[in-house]
Amino acid sequence: MAKKPHETDVEFIQALAALLNENELTELQVKRDYGENDSLNVRVSKQTNVVQAAAPAAAAVAAPVAAAPAPAAAAPAASAASEDPSDHPGAVASPMVGTAYLQAEPGSPAFVSVGAQVNEGDTVLIIEAMKTMNHIPAPRSGTVKRILVADGDAVEFGAPLMIIE
């Protein structure tokens, strides 16, 4: 940002925050150029808790199933709710908002695949955030059981990326 703040910058940032809320967005990034060496780069984001968002959805699904006359139908719904990847003890959660990449560059082999053995600290994927490539290490040694994101997917803070057991 320039050394001298522009008077309209605060109003501009407030307008971006309002736009974020009005359109139910989670992140918005804008660069405003004023001159050759004078610009403003703004990123406005909301942190959402994925676990809290999943709980009401599970309750909404469980209510119609409970009303069903067959008691056997309630058992699969209960097991599906307990299989939420973010609740799994081996879930690797995203430490930031960004774009997930499963390989170092297009055309290269993926860091890991389902069934692969990983050691604690091995890079399992990359998350690009604000033009920075962040290597995400395996938090524990084990076997990759599930990969929950595709190459190029946008990820939120705390979202499950993969399961390592």
TrEMBL record:
Listed Gene3D superfamilies: 2.40.50.100
Single GO MF descriptor: acetyl-CoA carboxylase activity
Pathway the protein contributes to: Lipid metabolism; fatty acid biosynthesis
Keyword Ribonucleoprotein attributed: no
Highest taxon listed in the record's lineage: Bacteria
Any GO CC annotation of this UniProt entry: acetyl-CoA carboxylase complex
Annotated spans, Disordered: 73-94
Annotated PROSITE patterns: BIOTIN (PS00188), BIOTINYL_LIPOYL (PS50968)
Occurrences of domain Lipoyl-binding (ranges): 89-165
Pfam assignment, any one: Biotin_lipoyl
Keywords carried by this UniProt record: Biotin, Fatty acid biosynthesis, Fatty acid metabolism, Lipid biosynthesis, Lipid metabolism
BP term (GO), one: fatty acid biosynthetic process
Compositional bias of kind Low complexity: 73-82
Function: This protein is a component of the acetyl coenzyme A carboxylase complex; first, biotin carboxylase catalyzes the carboxylation of the carrier protein and then the transcarboxylase transfers the carboxyl group to form malonyl-CoA.
Protein name, UniProt field: Biotin carboxyl carrier protein of acetyl-CoA carboxylase
Organism: Nereida ignava
Lineage: Bacteria, Pseudomonadati, Pseudomonadota, Alphaproteobacteria, Rhodobacterales
Gene that this polypeptide is encoded by: accB
